[in-house]
Amino acid sequence: MVGYHPKPGSRSVKLRSLSVCFVALLFSCEAANKPPAQARETAREPVRGPVSIVLDTDIGPDVDDVGALAMLHALADRGEARILGVMSSNPNQWAAPAIDVVNTYFGRGDLPIGAPRNGGVVIANAYGWNEAIVPHYPHNLDRTDDATDAVVAYRKLLAAQPDRSVTLVTIGFLTNLKNLLASPQDALSSLGGKQLVAKKVKQLVVMGGKYPRGKEFNLEQDPEAAVAVVENWPTPILFSGSEVGEKVFTGSALVRDSTLANSPVREAFRFYLAKDQQPARPSWDQTAVLVAVRGHADYFNAVAGQCRMYRDGHNEWTPSPNGPHRYLTFKRPPAEIQAVVEDLMRHPPK
Questions:
Q1: What letters, b where the CB count within 10 A reaches 16 and e where it falls short, cover 122-139?
Q2: How many angstroms separate the Cα of 113 from the Cα of each of 46, 56, 175?
Q3: CA distance 220 to 312
Q4: How many domains does the chain have?
Q5: Does residue 227 contact residue 209 with C-beta atoms inside 8 Å?
Q6: Cβ atoms of 139 and 101 closer than 8 Å
Q7: Facing residues of 317 across strands?
Q8: What are the strands of the beta sheet with 113-115, ordered from one edge?
């Protein structure tokens, strides 16, 4: 096992009680036996054009990042998303290769991959799942250092898109987004970072924080970046807090699906869950990707207001009907959202 760093705060519990796991397993069995109406929900036709989207992930500390990236590819295959690129906020040398493995598996090995060039929080891979998976699947990047500078990748991607057309979803640290905001004009764009974001980005979705107050791993790891982004981001922000994903358990149906024998997504979950000695994992990152593409209205309510970040990594919420931020609360039962997420994670390549 390589450098297992448990996530602090509400995402720190790696070994849950058997009773909680039993409930999660029951939820999974229940989801597998849903009537056709549930299946129609997960396979529905998109109600709008594909969402142009960039995913920013700390891939490695947990396996939910892999599930979120797999979901994004599934949604792209269904015509609901157009993936512009994937960034790692974690400079760990296995992070970008793991992203590359999943992208390649889904036939998108040419997607731009970025990573921090200077600084950044390096987090080891929980249970060493990245090191165990990457060598066995096709990929192009051997190290995260081989990836493009994330700021350069962001600026190039955003400059080429129509105004107010891009959704950014971050399921890791906010390091890359802080650096993007602070970036100066260059040959890629005559706009500084904040102006470029304001011109090109429609919405930022953040898996981070705990609401209405608390402390959560993603925002706590680089609190300086979290404060800078939350205070200065020039578009609306939608937060999926840790209290949402921790109630949506997924992975068990994926691991049991023998038709996905060659899937790095299935193997990552199988490896992680076996080490974790649990039947499923909370779906922190998957819920953020789901609402970034499909919107929240079918699954969640959204509370309007403003998030305040503190330099120790904790956050507090001020309700306001005209606030620039929103956070998710459940509209549908977690087990129903679990079925949607699990279905998307089990999507095979086209």
A1: ebbbbbbbbbbbbeebeb
A2: 27, 10, 15
A3: 7
A4: 1
A5: no
A6: yes
A7: 307
A8: 148-149, 113-115, 81-88, 51-57, 166-171, 201-207, 237-240, 325-330, 300-309, 314-319, 213-215
Provide block-wise average pLDDT over 10 residues at a time, the chain (350 residues).
Answer: 36 36 39 37 52 97 97 98 98 97 98 93 91 96 97 98 98 98 98 98 98 97 97 98 98 97 97 97 98 98 98 97 97 98 97
Element (H, E) at 214: strand 213-215
Residue 234: closest CA among 194, 191, 185? 194
In a domain, 8, yes or no: no
Q: Are strands 237-240 and 201-207 parallel, antiparallel or unpaired?
A: parallel
The tokens for 286 are 């998957």
Q: Three-class SS of residue 171?
A: strand
Q: What would the two tokens of residue 63 be?
A: 């396996």
Phi/psi at 207 (5° precision):
-85, 100
Tokens 């079925």 found at? 339
In the chain, count H helices and then E strands.
15, 13
Residues 238, 206: contact at Cβ < 8 Å?
yes
In a domain, 7, yes or no: no
Residue length, the chain?
Answer: 350
Vertex 229, ends 178 and 96: CA angle to 5°?
A: 45
CATH code of 221's domain: 3.90.245.10
In the chain, the amino acid numbered 349 is P
Tokens of 6: 């448990």
Triad 198, 199, 201: Cα angle to 5°? 70
Range of the structural domain that residue 229 is part of: 18-37+50-345
Predicted confidence at residue 48, as pLDDT, reads 64
